Amino acid sequence: LAQLFRPLDFLGMVYREIRQGLIDMEAMFGLIDTNEEVKDAPAATALTEKGGAVRFEDVRFSYDPEREILKGVDLSVPVGGTLAVVGSSGAGKSTLARLLFRFYDVTGGRITIDGQDLRAVTQASLRRAIGIVPQDTVLFNDTIGYNIAYGRDGASRLEVEAAAKGAAIHDFILSLPQQYDTPVGERGLKLSGGEKQRVAIARTLLKDPQLLILDEATSALDSRTEAEIQETLARVAERRTTIIIAHRLSTIVHADEIVVMEAGRIVERGTHGGLLAQAGLYAEMWMRQQTEDEEALAAE
Ligand code: ATP
C-alpha cells in the first residue's frame, strides 16, 4: 500500500512547491502568472546558499524588445548587507526584484547569488532561498494560523507561534475569538494593512531565508503603525542579506548602500549622509519628504 501512495506523496510535494512559487509571485506582483519562457537549464543544480550575496553585472532587460527598461545596472550586496533602492515611479525598482526572483531572464549581463548565475540553478531552489515581504499580502480564506504556517510546509504550531511573536502579531491573535483558528480573508475577519504586513513578516520568519526582499508599501499606514512595522522589519533584516525597495526614505537612513534609479539606470549611490552631501536627486527627494512629513504631522 505504501508503494501505491508514494507517487501521490510526490505529486503532493510538486503541487506544494508550485503553489509556494505561485503564491510568492502572486503576492509580489499582485497577479497569478507563470512565465513559460523561464525554464530550468537541463544541467541546473540546486543553489548552494552561502549567505545570499547578490551581484548584478551590467544587467539589461526589456519586457518587450522596443523598450529597454534596465539599461546596464551594476550593484552588489555583500552577505548580511542592506541595499536600498529608491527612485521615481517606473524607474525599474520592482523589475530588479522580479529578475532576482527569476520571474524573467535578463536580456544582457548577469545576476548571481553567492557567485552562481541564476540561469544555472533550479527555480525551486532559488525561490526557497529568497524571502519576500510584498507591498500587499494575499490572505487565504482560512485560519490566521494557516495563513502564517504557509511560510513553510510542515511548520508546527509552536513554530508558527514563535514566528507570530517575532512579527509582533501573537498578542493580537490571542485577542481574537478563536485565536489561531480564527478565519480571515474575504470570508472571515478582515485584517488591516498593518496586520496583513505582520502576517507576511511572520511567514517570512518561518521561511527563514538568507536573502530578503522588502517591497515597501506605497499605501500609507498611520505613522505609529508604520514605525512599529519598521522596527519589526529591522529585526527581521538583521543578520540577513537584504534588499529594500523603499518609498519612505526615513526607513533606509541606516542602509549600507542606497542606490537611486532613474529611467533604468543607477544615477546616484552612497550612504544616506554621503548622498545628502552630494546635493543631487536623493538630497532633493529627502527635502521633499521632510516637508511632506511635516505637513502630514500638522494635519494629524
Ligand atoms: P513603482 O515605484 O511605481 O513601483 P518601479 O520603479 O518599481 O515603479 P517597475 O515596476 O520596475 O518600476 O517598472 C519599470 C517599467 O517597466 C515601467 O515603465 C513599467 O511600465 C514597465 N513594466 C513593468 N512591468 C511590465 C510588464 N509586465 N510588461 C511591460 N512593461 C512593464
TrEMBL record:
Q: Which residues form the ABC transporter domain?
A: 54-288
| Annotated signal sequence range | none
- UniProt-annotated location(s): Cell membrane
Which protein are we looking at?
A: ABC transporter ATP-binding protein/permease
Source organism of this protein record: Sphingomonas natans
- Region of the whole protein represented: 305 to 604 of 604
